[in-house]
Amino acid sequence: VPVEAVTPDLESDIVDISGISLSALKAANDSVLARSIERAVRESAVGDDVIAGFESSI
Amino acid sequence: MSWPREGVAPERLAAAGWRPMPFREFVLKLYGHCNLACDYCYVYQLADQTWHDKPRAMSEEVIGHAIRRVVDHVELHKLQAIRVVLHGGEPLMAGVAVIRDVCMRLRALLPDYCALELRLQTNGMLLTARLLEGLADCGVKIGVSLDGNADDHDRRRRSASGRGSHTSVARGLALLGGERFRSMYAGLLCVVDLEADAVATYEALLEFQPPALDFLLPHGNWDSPPPRRGPDSRSAPYGDWLIEVFDRWYGASSKETGVRLFEEIINMVLGGASRSESIGLSPVRLIVIDTDGSLEQVDTLKSTFPGAPDTGLDVGSHDLDEALHHPAVIARQLGTAGLSDDCQACSLRNVCGGGYYPHRYAEATGFLNPSVYCADMRRLIPHIKSRVLTDLADLVGA
């Protein structure tokens, strides 16, 4: 979910999990770090089955 | 003792309550030969030379068995999502009709509850508008191997007659990355070459606007080390090379593309898990089906010793669950218990995960060793961690 589309629920998850306010995340703009935090929060919320994918394909 | 063939006891693990996790990723070697002769290729140039004895193409009969086994495995374990990778050799040499048939049959036969992600990894030589048009409704995403700019790419990725391949690949990538076929574009794979400038390599890849890319370390191990990777643990040429790329990629004001190796390390630094077998401790749940129907572990093991990926099983006679009990398959699902003593004691253990499995090999001890790239990972991972945590601290304090 892009920062600009974060719902109130997800916003509170982001703050709970990362300790980072949404305004700080927005200030990080579209950086690698901001995208990485979004991914970490999303995967932590979904909690799906993580597998180690085949290295020789992308 | 050669671990894990000796030392991993499936019966003992089962008695202790451990259960293997079903496969979720299936690599189909549709075509075993290739129209390039890259000098580092793990299929043709390294320890295992069994490709000589295997069929060029997967037969209709083997394809049928393979699809049936995958579908059976999904139904038996009620898998909600799987990934099928069409691979080679060069899979596009199988022809559009065969590739379409495999994709469509999988979609038709898998139960509705199972999401199918289809990937194809190619050297890009045969990417034409006609081919892409033929695959457009298959839902397959295509990854391409590209090793940087023309000079660097052509140094390693040549035809058998010695002709460079960059011009043809670039032509194909222009099509794949164009508006018409972009939805089929998965990204780029690049093998690290210390002779190439790191940042120039990354920027050469960026020119093709990949949705994602990854840098793969050249295959090597303790008995057959990669280029310029001696036993000196103070030297970390691959770590230094990757750090140059990381700093260029991470420092961009706006994310330019995904770089899998770096993204997985960052995700683990942030408390998540890795989705790549090359890093981290997530269970490896993939099986390879070769052109002759044999069930194999990850095929990059061909870089270690002849027959290394073999399980002794094949899709005609064995269901995939039988491969789940193979010691080498189990070894890659054991997490920290599958690591050497040195790795278990290492502070980077959970992020590094012991390094890529084939890179741990030594004839005397098998795979129970740190990676031959240990020194490089010891330099790269702390660098990434330091940059991320410093920036994170700034964000939290903002």
Strand order, largest beta sheet of chain B? 7-6-5-4-3-2-1-8-9-10
Number of helices, where a helix is a run of at least 4 consecutive DSSP H or I residues of chain A = 3
What coarse outline of chain A follows from CA principal-axis ratios?
globular
Secondary-structure element order of chain A, N to C? HHH
Through-space gap between termini of chain A:
22 Å
Whole-number mean pLDDT of chain B: 93
Mean of residue pLDDT of chain A?
A: 77
Q: Can you count the beta strands of chain B?
A: 10
Shape of chain B: globular
| Helix percentage range of chain B | 25-40%
Q: Tally the helices of chain B: what do you get?
A: 14
Helix vs. strand class of chain B: alpha/beta
End-to-end Cα distance of chain B, whole Å, is 54 Å
**What oligomeric state do the depicted chains represent?**
heterodimer
| Strand residue percentage of chain A | under 5%
Helix content of chain A: 55-70%
Rg calculated over all Cα atoms of chain A: 13 Å
Strand content of chain B: 5-15%
What is the N-to-C order of secondary-structure elements of chain B (H for helix, E for strand)?
HEHEHEHEHHEHEHEHEEEHHHHH
Largest interface: A-B, 32 and 57 residues
How many strands in all of chain A? Answer: 0
